[in-house]
Amino acid sequence: MSSAPAFAAGQGGVALPRHVAIIMDGNGRWAKRRHLPRVAGHRAGVEAVRKVSRAARALGIEALTLYAFSSENWRRPEEEVGDLMGLLRLFIRSDLAELVRENVRLRVIGDYRRFPHDVVALIDDAIARTSGNSGPILAIALNYGAQAELVEATRRIAARVAAGETDATVIDAAMIEAELETRALPPLDLLIRTSGEHRLSNFLLWQAAYAELLFVDTLWPDFDAEAFGVAIEDFGRRQRRFGGL
Ligand code: IPE
Ligand code: IPE
Ligand code: MG
Hints:
Helix 2 runs parallel beside helix 3, helix 2 packs across helix 7 and helix 3 packs parallel to helix 4. This protein has seven helices and six strands. It is globular and about 60 Å long. The protein is about 40% helix and about 15% strand. It has a single domain, classed as Undecaprenyl pyrophosphate synthetase. The two termini are about 35 Å apart. By secondary structure, the chain is of the alpha/beta class. The site of one 3-methylbut-3-enyl trihydrogen diphosphate has 11 residues, from helix 1. One 3-methylbut-3-enyl trihydrogen diphosphate binds next to strand 2.
C-alpha cells in the first residue's frame, strides 16, 4: 500500500501532491448550526480526520499534515482546550492500532510538550510505536505556530554562528529549512483550509511559499473522502510555475 502509486503521477496521469496540509476549520460552526455544544463539532471533526487520512493513504499521498491545535488556540476557554485534549487522548487510544497496521509513520510538529503530561506520554508512545514503519507520514500539528518555528530555527542558527561553527554569510534557505519541524517531510504541495476562512492562521508560513492554496467553504466535519478527492483533482489541474514560464 505504501509502495503504491508513483508520486509524480496519480490515477489517469494527473499530478498527485506528495505533501498535503489541511487547516481543519469550522468544527464550532458545524455544531452551532445543529444547536449542539462546540465539543460535538470537535468530535465530528475527529471522524473527518479518520476519513481523510484513510483517503490520503488510498490515493498514495506521501505526507498529510493536519493542523489540530495552534499556538494561539490556548486563548480559547479552558473547558474547550480540555475537551480538545480529551479528544486527542481518545483518538490516539482508538486509532493507534490502525496506524501501526497501515504502516503509517505518525509525527507531530509543534511544541506538544506543553500539553498535559499524560497526553505527552501518549503522543511519545504513539510516535515510537510507528517509528519502525516505512509508509505514509501523518503529521499532526499540536501547539504549532509557524512564527515560533522560525524563531526557534533562527535561535539555533544564531547559536552556531556565535559558537563560531558557521558563518552568517553562509546562511541560506536550505540551512533554515533543515531547522524546521517539517525537515523530514516532502515539500508542501497543497494547502487546504476548510470553512470559508481565507487566512493561514500561523500555519506553515515558510513551507507554503510555493504550495498551491485551496480554500473551501465546507466545514471540517463535513469534509470527507469525496471532498478530499475533489481537492486532489483540483490540484491536478493547476499549473505550477515556481517563478518560471
Ligand atoms: C477548528 O474548528 C478546530 C480547532 C481550531 C481546534 P474551530 O473550533 O475553529 O471551529 P470554528 O472556526 O469556531 O467554526
Ligand atoms: C486555525 O483555526 C487552527 C486550527 C485549525 C487548529 P482557528 O479557528 O484557530 O483560526 P482563526 O482564529 O479563525 O484564525
Ligand atoms: Mg476556527
